[in-house]
Prior knowledge:
The chain has 296 residues and is of the alpha/beta class. The chain is built from eleven helices and 13 strands.
Amino acid sequence: MSETSRRATKAVIPAAGNATRFLPVTKSVPKELLPIVDKPVLQYIVEEAAEAGADDVLLVTARGKDSMVDYFDSRFDLEEALAAKGKDDALESIRAPERTAEIHAVRQGGALGLGHAVGRGAAHVGDEPFAVLLGDEFCHLDDKLLPRMIELQAETGGIVLALMEVPREDVSRWGIASVDATDDDDVVEVTGMVEKPAVDQAPSNLSLIGRYVLPGSIFPVLHDTPPGRGGEIQLTDAMDTMRAKGTPVHGVIFRGRRYDTGEPAAYLQTIVELASERDDLPGFNAWLREFGATLD
Ligand code: UTP
């Protein structure tokens, strides 16, 4: 079967970083398990992969982060206790993680960079196309970014990135793509990527977000990619090598809801926004309104 007709059914979630922006809590709690009220970030991400058809999930983990794998395992003792007490909702909630996807894990063996973390998926993924979902952000399931990316990758066989428009004055905070338009309003051809450009030198205001669909042919390229910026093996460098050698690179422009949980302020916004949409937190929105008024 040719590479261009296969759809990605596997996902790699790099979750082995040191999470320095979240110290001290991340000294012993993985950033990827921080809760959005009562559900960890990682569960949202695994649901996003599974909903897109990539329900074979490889977690790239690290020493001290085994609790991420435990979270997706069953807890018979707790299940029995909840069943005995007739706590059916709680029982369903603890069974949900293991039912969402088939979880595999591999240790990164040192936080040597995102490219290195993704490269640890080589043996599990093989030469198939696969999705990469960074472990500290997620998209609203209704907004269907990953399904669109997987569909596009199956058509092109190349690399598919996710892009979001950011205010011009903020471009120097992100990786920015230079792009050419295509016939599709939400798809661009990516002609280059620059990390944190000066405002007057940015080729666009389209920033890369943490979702990628990649061909399996990236693994040997990652293997040969030397450490780049920050002494880390960069996924961007490997993608750029492939682009320079003729691999098509496209970007899907995402205009939906994306939740960042990688640093404290964005994480707090995510919690408040999602908590305010729940109807099982009595009094929260009333309190939020009152509290907001005290800040004026
Ligand atoms: P980040 O750069 O945001 O995570 O990587 P970090 O390095 O853990 O956090 P800071 O910057 O020090 O605060 C995005 C995702 O990639 C994973 C992280 O775990 C995170 O989910 N990652 C990063 C790896 O798995 N391995 C790495 O070597 C680097």
